[in-house]
Write a structure and sequence with these properties.
globular; about 35% helix; 2 domains; Rossmann fold; about 260 residues; 10 helices; 4-stranded antiparallel β-sheet; alpha/beta; about 25% strand
Length: about 260
């Protein structure tokens, strides 16, 4: 058995099969260590939060896991396969899909067409530029299923750019689900949302996690407490604490990292 296979057959702290694992992850930038010795295990069917103060290295970890940035050292395993040196496009095709802090939709296409565009690659249409536009019609039933799943079915004919900010983020989740992720990385999915939108998106994420693993960066600790099974806290690029919410929220080091000390 290879080391990669052994890692993938492990269970996380919640007893779920580990589908995404990192060991000793490090990234240097011209002498500055942005991420140092980070270990992560993300289990199938679980929601894992990556939290920490601004500048803690959370987005850099996302970029390393998805191979947008090469790691200086360490290993990354996805679904029995070592992806430490795998190109990012192939990593996405293997099932590791991410969202970004800035909503990535086509504002001048309809909500339905945004999802149909996302479905093209999974259905072999992404590079078949000679095909008639009617070929997209075959994708409509699946696109409508995804919109039903995230509560956007009634808005399918609206222009995506006309949606509220919260609903744009929901549409982005629908387009990532079109790629049939095994692991979904969400970068601050609740950022900038009102309370009502936060509640809606939280329930969508909870439903999505029934069929895949989710790793999310999130600053809203109320959401983290309610939604996440496991939490890893970063500070200055290193893991400060890890555990369920009760464990990390009672850790004095975590309290200091977020709130400072009386002398600050």
């Amino acid at each position: 058995m290879t080391p990669a296979s052994a890692a993938s057959e492990q269970s996380d702290s919640n007893g779920s099969r580990v589908v995404l694992s990192a060991r000793g992850l490090r990234r240097d930038f011209a002498g500055f260590v942005a991420v140092r010795n980070v270990d992560l295990d993300v289990g199938h069917g679980k929601i894992h939060a990556l939290i920490g103060p601004n500048g803690a290295g959370k987005t850099t970890v996302f970029n390393l896991l998805t191979r947008f940035l090469p790691s200086t050292s360490g290993t990354i395993t996805l679904l029995d396969q070592d992806i430490t040196r795998t190109p990012p496009a192939k990593v996405a095709r293997l099932g590791l899909v991410r969202s970004f802090q800035i909503s990535a939709i086509f504002p001048h296409l309809s909500v339905l067409d945004n999802v149909r565009v996302a479905l093209q690659r999974q259905n072999g249409l992404g590079v078949q530029f000679w095909r008639s536009l009617s070929a997209l019609d075959d994708l409509t039933p699946r696109a409508q299923e995804l919109l039903e799943r995230v509560g956007l079915a009634n808005a399918r004919h609206h222009m995506a750019g006309d949606l509220s900010y919260g609903r744009k983020r929901v549409l982005e989740i629908a387009t990532t689900l079109a790629l049939e992720p095994k692991v979904l990385l969400l970068d601050e999915p609740m950022a900038g949302m009102g309370h009502e939108d936060v509640a809606v998106v939280a329930e969508i994420i909870r439903g999505v996690a029934e069929n895949c693993a989710i790793l999310m960066v999130e600053h809203n600790l109320t959401v983290v407490a309610d939604l996440c099974d496991w939490i890893t806290v970063l500070q200055r690029g290193e893991i400060l604490a890890a555990g369920d919410y009760a464990t990390v929220s009672s850790d004095e080091r975590v309290k200091t990292a977020y709130m400072g000390t009386a002398d600050d």
